[in-house]
Design brief:
3 helices; about 0% strand; about 80 residues; flat; mainly alpha
């Protein structure tokens, strides 16, 4: 079946990249005893990733800060096409 359009392919690449990072930085570092333990660790990882971790691709901001700035139109972004 496969992904036919470039937007879908770009999204698939981002999802695969995210999955790989989550594997390296979270799953492979812990041995979980239960679903709830795994959920707690992953939830904390995601919270830190969104609230504290800075990303060069979004002007060295945390994703939640960048999103808020974007919604207020107080940050400029480059146009791109997929």
């Amino acid at each position: 079946m496969g992904i036919k359009n470039s937007a879908g392919k770009a999204l698939a690449v981002r999802i695969e990249s995210f999955s790989s990072i989550l594997e390296d930085e979270c799953y492979s570092r812990y041995e979980f005893e239960s679903f709830m333990e795994a959920y707690g660790v992953i939830n904390e990882y995601m919270r830190c990733s969104n609230e504290r971790r800075r990303y060069g691709s979004i002007k060295y901001m945390a994703t939640n800060i960048f999103y808020e700035a974007l919604m207020r139109n107080s940050v400029r972004t480059k146009k791109f096409s997929v």
